[in-house]
Amino acid sequence: MSAPPTVAPAETTAPDLVPEGVERIVLGRGAHRLGAWRAEPATGTPRSVLVAVHGRAMSPGYFAGPSAPHTSLLALATALGHTVLAVERPGYGLSRAALPRGLPLAEQARLLRLSLADYAGLHPVGAGFFLLGHSDGGKTALHLAGETWSGATPADRLLGLDLNGCGWHYAPAAAHFPDTLSGGAGALNWGPLRLYPGGTFRTSRALLREVPAAEEEETGRWPGRFPAAAARVRCPVRLTFGAYEGWWCLERDELDAVAAGFTGTRRPAVDLLPEAGHNLSLGLAAPLYHARALTFLEECLAAPSGRPR
Q1: How confident is the model over 206-252, as pLDDT tens digits?
Q2: Are strands 129-134 and 237-242 parallel, antiparallel or unpaired?
Q3: Which helix (H) or strand (E) holds 90?
Q4: How many CA atoms are closer than 13 Å to the CA of 101, on its beta-carbon side?
Q5: What are the residue ranges spanned by the domains of the chain?
Q6: Phi and psi of 180, rounded to 5°?
Q7: Nearest C-alpha neighbor of 227 from the set 171, 150, 169, 147
Q8: 203 neighbors 160 (Cβ within 8 angstroms)
Q9: How far is it, in rounded angstroms, from Cα 43 to Cα 41?
Q10: Distance CA 62, CA 53 (A)
Q11: DSSP E strand stretches across 148-292
């Protein structure tokens, strides 16, 4: 196993390279507007809107296959007829100036909920929204799934929640919460180098962003907050971890407990991907993970009322 690389931080204001067919848009109104990348299906009429929520110290380009086009979630999802909104979480990107400290996770979710409601008032959303969250973005997505979704109309319907690299209790090696920008979290974020396309560690430098202080302060509190957040979720849920995941405990009893925490919906499946690390959407396993996440979305769409039984 090769040693994980130290990835030097990019300038915090450096823009990601937006692929062809993807546009930058603004979600919401007023002082707390959020940036997002939008990719739409060729038909222009989406079957649903997949909301992709980036992790700690990251940006929307994480989901766009920066090192290898075939690893792009945006490309695969739009080919299957879905719009993708890869959002900038509050305190990142466009909202950094208005929210220099960012927001706590639950407040991030509330702002995102308002932004998505505003989006649905202006654009077609097909059958509704589907959330996919990575790492700390999974924490925000989990809170967002626990917000009020009446389901009365597609604009207010949450089809499902797909989380990856987001668990309950941190692994012992992650207990001191090393900093991603300084390169101190390399072993936790990456795992063996063979898990990634060539050039990944060079191209990923442009994805890095400073972690907002309000988010950083909540990191150590997550294990105490996970049970209540999970219990509020009412939509179908799916969980994925790479076998070389470094941030989270992956013992069988722990994963069973994570799944059991979703008491308001059916018990979620937990998928452990071999030859994959924490950054699933940047790795060689990305096409497999994305295909399984989108298969789950298909199940949500096919089930009565958008909910698999």
Answers
A1: 898 999 999 999 999 999 999 999 999 999 999 999 999 999 999 99
A2: unpaired
A3: none
A4: 6
A5: 22-306
A6: -70, -40
A7: 169
A8: no
A9: 5
A10: 10
A11: 158-164, 237-242, 269-273
pLDDT for the residue 308: 41
H-assigned helices in 65-135: 73-79, 105-120
At position 294, the amino acid (one-letter code) is: L
Taking 70 as the threshold, does the pLDDT of residue 309 lie above it?
no
- List, in order, residues 6 or more apart from 196 with CB less than 8 Å away: 67, 190, 277, 279, 282, 283, 284
* 180 three-class SS: coil
| Distance, CA of 277 to CA of 201 (rounded, Å) | 14
Residue 50 · residue 77 · CB < 8 Å:
yes
**Which CATH superfamily does the domain covering 22-306 fall into?**
Alpha/Beta hydrolase fold, catalytic domain (3.40.50.1820)
Residue burial 82-100, b: 16+ Cβ < 10 Å; e: rest: bbbbbbbbbbbbbbbeebe
Amino acid at 302: A
Q: How many CA atoms lie within 13 A of 73 on its CB side?
A: 33
The closest of 260, 218, 224 to 239, measured between CA atoms, is: 260
pLDDT digits (tens, 9 = 90+) for 151-210: 999 999 999 999 999 999 999 988 776 565 445 457 777 888 899 999 888 888 889 899
- pTM of the predicted model as reported, rounded to 2 decimal places: 0.92
Contacts of 252 (CB under 8 A, 6+ apart): none
